[in-house]
Amino acid sequence: MNEADHDPELKKPYAGEKRTRLSGAWTALVFGAVALVVILIFIVQNPQPAEVHFLVFHGQLPLAVGLLFAMVLGAAVVLAFGAGRILQLRLVARRARRQGAQPTAPLE
């Protein structure tokens, strides 16, 4: 055992070592850049044309671009449902605060 195991002062993080919003944003930026590179490689490697029919629209476009559009549309649907749920929870919390309800412990 070393001295840090017994002394709580030695376990405290140094200034700047703590996780911050900026460090979280930096991590998200790095992951986003890696994802962008992977998507660009996918698009470059899949240029073959694909026939696309959507409602009254039809035509040809590269396979990867069609899949990218589908991915973006799927993400938009997920974001819309997520935003709706967050709004619903905020309204419930606001109503509970107005009525003076005590907050409950989160479910595990």
Account of the protein in words:
It contains three helices and two strands, in the order ααββα. The chain is mainly α and 108 residues long. It has a two-stranded antiparallel ribbon. α2 (21-45) runs antiparallel to α3. The protein is flat and about 60 Å long. The mean pLDDT is 81.
When the domains are counted, the total is: 2
The tally of strands reads 2
Helix and strand string, N-terminal first?
HHEEH
- SS strand fraction: 5-15%
Strand order of the largest sheet: 1-2
What is the overall silhouette?
flat
Q: Average the pLDDT over all residues and give the rounded result.
A: 81
Overall SS class: mainly alpha
* Oligomeric description of these chains: single chain
What percent of residues adopt helix (DSSP H or I)?
A: 55-70%
Largest sheet geometry: 2 strands, antiparallel
Q: Radius of gyration in whole Å, from Cα?
A: 24 Å
Provide a count of the helices: 3
Give the terminus-to-terminus CA distance: 34 Å
Low-confidence stretches: none
SSE map:
Elements: H1 8-11, H2 21-45, E1 49-54, E2 57-62, H3 63-98
Antiparallel strand pairs: 1-2
Helix pairs in contact: 2-3
Outline:
This protein has 3 helices and 2 strands, in the order H-H-E-E-H.
Features:
108 residues; mainly alpha; 2 domains; 60% helix; two-stranded antiparallel sheet; single chain
